Amino acid sequence: MAQTYDVIVVGSGPGGYPAAIRASQLGLKVAIVEKELLGGICLNWGCIPTKALLKSAQVFEYIKHAKDYGINVGESSADFGGVIKRSRGVADSMSKGVAFLMKKNKIDVIMGTGKVKGVKTVEVTDKDGKKTDYTAGKGVVIATGARARELPNIKIDGTKVIEYRKAMSLETQPKSLLVVGSGAIGMEFAYVYATMGTKVTVVEFLPNLVPVEDEDISKEIAKQYKKLGVDTYVNSSVEKVDTSGNGCKVTVKTPDGEKSFEVDVVLSAAGIVSNIENIGLEEAGIKTDKGKISVNEWYETNVPGFYAIGDCTPGPALAHVATAEGIICAEKIAGHKTEALDYGNIPGCTYCQPEIASVGFTEKKAKEAGYDIKVGKFPFKASGKATAAGATDGFVKVIFDAKYGEFLGAHMIGTNVTEMIAEVVVARKLETTAHEIMRSIHPHPTMSEALKGATEAAYGEAIDL
């Protein structure tokens, strides 16, 4: 006889475990199914350990430029193995933290591979191959996440052609690396490896680096990566990777013709694909579209009692989006009145140096939407705090509707801007206008003053420009 819960969550990543916790907080009996490590990809192989790598790279960069701050240090070098070890330690600590949260919230953890079947039922196969059925009285939440996309002409072998998981656990540092794709994953690894001394080349198929960002951001990061020594190619595609020799011979089609590169390792960072195969969707009759599970605004699938959240659904593949979806989904299952997620107010962050953060309309998208706009920009070289910190690269750009002062979007590139973007998210949530931003006191000296300065610039009231 199957064991019964109110809610069963399949997957313990940044969508799954918050959904389980929120459901438990609302008085439901909850189990979570995980086939590998608690915390999923984000905590173990994504968001968290990559930030540990990025911090190590940043510290090394500080040391190399210590003289700029009046500090004399001896000869320094990056201990690649030590950097990797620290990153894995951080990931392990966070995974243990999720285990603690499961225990604290009285959530049963079922280790094994989950497969949906029947009516609100999950079949779990453990490491020994034993199958056990579990039923959910109120609902099953599918939160199986995603994995690296493998391009047809770039076969990942885990040695010479790798994806992000291997990129953060290589045994030795490559002398040269070619990164395919300039989204957040590609740009973050490009920064880490380039800072530690690897010769890095980035190839992007679309016309701009970080193609989802405002074009001014793309231009600025291209300039900064050139200073870092990273070669970048846009409007370009990897046609062939020959791994028959000691390294990789890569053929790249560029606007200037074909180019050949010989590198130690190729990192494929060309997006992700949802983990929806072999989890019982077809047998259960759950609809999918373009490789994603189809859901409504409350994350209900077409089959009653089955829900789906996170990277296996059509929304943005971001950890904080999955968390928000998981909480809303749990509240809906519990019968609470909840608010649907506003996908037009989702912040995006890239944690290279300088950092990139944005939310809302780009300038181009705002014009395409028919808005008459006011645009302001404040460079960090005009910021007292940035100058004192030796972090004058980058700027804050804001976009407002000229008629009503509606805050349409913000785009930032610079040190610590990923910590600043939440102010804009909250401001837009509260329908804050440009005038209210200008009249809100920002502490001095701070990097956050740049947001106020950019807003003043949009309205011709800039004090420090």
Note the total helix count. 14
The shape is globular
CA gyration radius, whole angstroms = 24 Å
| Unreliable stretches covering 5 or more consecutive residues | none
Strand percentage = 25-35%
Structural class: alpha/beta
Helix content: 25-40%
Total number of strands: 24
Mean pLDDT: 95
How far from one another are the termini? 72 Å
Largest sheet: 7 strands, mixed
Question: Can you describe this structure?
Answer:
This protein is of the alpha/beta class. It contains 14 helices and 24 strands. Strands 1, 2, 3, 4, 5, 6 and 19 form a seven-stranded mixed sheet that branches. Strands 8-15-9-10-11 form a five-stranded parallel sheet. Helix 1 (16-25) runs parallel beside helix 9 (319-333). The longest helix has 25 residues, at 80-104. The mean pLDDT is 95.
Topology at a glance:
Blueprint: E1 3-10, H1 16-25, E2 30-34, H2 40-45, H3 47-64, H4 80-104, E3 108-111, E4 113-117, E5 121-125, E6 131-142, E7 146-148, E8 161-162, H5 164-167, E9 176-180, H6 184-195, E10 199-203, H7 215-228, E11 231-233, E12 237-242, E13 248-254, E14 257-263, E15 265-268, E16 272-274, H8 281-284, E17 288-289, E18 292-293, E19 306-308, H9 319-333, E20 348-350, E21 355-360, H10 363-368, E22 373-379, H11 384-389, E23 395-401, E24 407-414, H12 421-429, H13 434-438, H14 449-458
Helix pairs in contact: 1-9, 3-4, 3-6
